[in-house]
Amino acid sequence: MRPIHWTIAFALVAGTPAFAQDAEGLTVVFAEDSNSDTTFDPRVTQSRHEEQVITQMFDQLVVADSTAKIYPGLAKSWEVSDDQTSITFALRDDVTFHDGTPFNAEAVKFTLDSIKDPALGSQGAVDIMGPYASSEVLDEFTIKVTYERPFPAGLGTFTENELSPVSPTAVKEKGDNGFAQAPVGTGPFKFVSWEKGREVVLERNEDYNWAPEFMDNKGPSKVARIIHRYVPDASTRVAALEAGEVQITDLTPPLDMQRLSNSGDFKTVVAVASGVPFSAPLNTSKGPFADTKVRQAFMHSINRPALADSLFFGFADAAYGPISSATPEYFEGVEAYYPYDPDKAAALLDEAGWTMGSGGIREKDGAPLSIYFPALMEPESAVALQAEARKAGFDVTVENVLKQKQDELILNNEYDMLVLRWVLNDPAVMVIPYHSRNIPEPGTFKFNWSRYSNPELDKLLTDAAAATTPQAREQLYADAQKLIMEEALVLPIHDQIQSIAYSADLDGIRFAPGNWQVRLYDVRPAAD
């Protein structure tokens, strides 16, 4: 098993120096751990990588700080109906989009209605917005949002990037595809250019004067220019940081975090992301994992605490359920499911008819217990899982794939397990990978990669979102987590951490809600 700490490469990222300050302000380079971005339309995205850029360009009606406390944003105030079926927002009247068109109630209605339209192909927002029915423009700066049923979580959904208002003018001029490549929001930074696979350039919005009250800065950012550079290899990101070619790195390896923090030249921050932890959905529709006992045996065969310690050196804990320990309504009872127990794994496989064959691989009816595992992320974790599962008699074939190949396999149902994570500061995130309406099919990309359909689970998730008391919401989400674990739909692997290292010359780094994206609006030179 290869540790996550890789040898530092000598080939650094060429380009603009990371820390530059002149009369116009700072230029900051953010090194991102991916190069697969395809859209910066908040209505469409399902990617945490894309959201790191989107966060800088778009505002929300209501804004949450890193602790999930809600503040006014583009909406000055709001009123939730007594029956929890509508929210009326009073909007700011002094905001303009980057293209100069006014922000108003019509823009909010346009955004929400377009998300609901299947023609857009929304992958995240369409679930986050819940049972949205319609919007009514009451006047230029007042809008009433109505739901098909009570939706107490409705207000919180408007803190998410995916529901950020977009410029109707820009969408109509560019079309949905054009807008995705050159987005227009109201946020503190404007889109300038995108060289796919290399970098995105943003510039300060000089008219920005509507930051939420919890921000330190007021008015335009001290950062004049952001260069969001794609550096998938962790060792190269760290080397570039130390060389001064980038100023902020994400997903910094744990041993490097310790070393950089102790150097005095860099600062570090670590947070556990809310939402779906780093997990492996198990395909229940075909192959060995169609048998619940085989899925349960696989879960018992993996020593997750030891795996997390080996890969993350204490920075990340093992995950145990369908949502992370940092997510509201996390049910601690999931931690009792599927402890590492090789004997239990063996007994379950025996019961399922898989007997030990030659070479330590179990067999049934002459066929080996083969599992195909295309892994888009964390190859070290995939290889570690492969080795652990082999001890129990599973023959796991790991293939490191790019997103295009992964997506093809998903649409054609040609996999046994995958890796998934999702950042969202609400247990409603479980709808995305576990509701039956989100089972993928040819031409329709969705995220129920377990391909599990159960009316009972669908009802629990739907009723939880509509629960009108905290007690009912907590119980329903606990019951949903129990059912997901009883059915062994997913192997939770480890809590997803975001490990940020940055130059000690900077202050003002802060996480957005969910503890993944980094807001750069408040970044400024460090005080002497």
Which secondary structure elements does this structure contain, and how are they paired or packed?
Blueprint: E1 20-22, E2 25-32, H1 48-57, E3 62-64, E4 70-72, E5 75-80, E6 86-91, H2 105-116, H3 125-128, E7 132-139, E8 142-147, H4 154-157, H5 168-181, E9 189-195, E10 199-204, E11 223-230, H6 234-242, E12 248-249, H7 254-263, E13 266-272, E14 275-281, H8 292-300, H9 304-312, H10 342-351, E15 355-356, E16 362-364, E17 367-368, E18 370-375, H11 379-391, E19 395-400, H12 403-411, E20 420-423, H13 431-434, H14 455-466, H15 470-486, E21 490-494, E22 497-503, E23 506-507, E24 510-511, E25 518-519, E26 524-525
Parallel strand pairs: 2-11, 2-12, 18-19
Antiparallel strand pairs: 1-2, 3-4, 5-6, 6-8, 7-8, 9-10, 10-11, 12-22, 13-22, 14-20, 14-21, 15-16, 16-17, 23-26, 24-25
Helix pairs in contact: 8-10, 14-15
